[in-house]
Amino acid sequence: MKRVVLPLAVVLAVLGALAIRVVVEGRAALAAGDYETAARWYLPLAPHVDEAYAKLRTLTKSEDPAVALAAWRSIRAAARATRSLWQPHADDLAEADAQIATLSAAAPGGGKLDGGDPLAWHKERLARDVRPSLAAAILAGVGILLWVAGAFVLARRGTFAVGPTGVIVLGLALWFVGLYKT
């Protein structure tokens, strides 16, 4: 039982410390008026995140199109930066993309050069997702875990063994494939 309790306590302590850091940094950014940074310090159910999005939404209502566009871009950047296995603030991201496309198409010089529809052009550009796919990221992560686990077992044994070496090779291969697919 002690073999399980101590590692579990260490893991919970580290996660708790990380959560406290996220909330403290998020609140500090919010107090400094850096709403995009506050929104990027994402933790599910952390109150500073929703408050930061609310402050950015207030800025989107500015009479100055440049300020409104910058606020929508901040909402978009914060939402995209916090994607992990799920997309927090997906509705905010979708609305930000639509508003950015509309404001950009209406801006002087914001149209497409070949005479096409500027709004459609901006929407198409914003819809592109150049980040690695979730599957590729998971594949690379599993590869790293296998590589580390194989190296750990090999180091504990102190001698060469085919099993752990195979796990290391498989882990490295999965990692390379995951990186290549990104």
Helix content: over 70%
* Structural class estimated from helices and strands: mainly alpha
* Secondary-structure element pattern, one letter each: HHHHHHHH
Fraction of residues in β-strands: under 5%
**Distance between the first and last residues' Cα:** 42 Å
Q: How many domains would you count in the coordinates?
A: 2
Shape: flat
Low-confidence stretches: none
Biggest pleated sheet: none
- Radius of gyration, in Å, reads 23 Å
Q: Could you report the average pLDDT, rounded to the nearest whole number?
A: 89
Number of helices: 8
Number of strands: 0
Written account of the structure:
By secondary structure, the protein is mostly helical. It folds into two domains: about 1-125, no CATH class; about 135-180. About 75% of the residues lie in helices and about 0% in strands. Helix 3 (about 45-60) packs antiparallel against helix 4 (about 65-80). The chain is flat.
Q: Characteristics of this structure?
A:
about 180 residues, mainly alpha, 2 domains, 8 helices, about 0% strand, flat
Quick summary:
With 182 residues, the chain is mainly α. It has two domains: 2-127, no CATH class; 134-180.
Question: How are the SSEs placed, and which strands pair?
Answer:
Layout: H1 2-31, H2 35-40, H3 47-60, H4 65-81, H5 90-106, H6 118-127, H7 134-157, H8 162-180
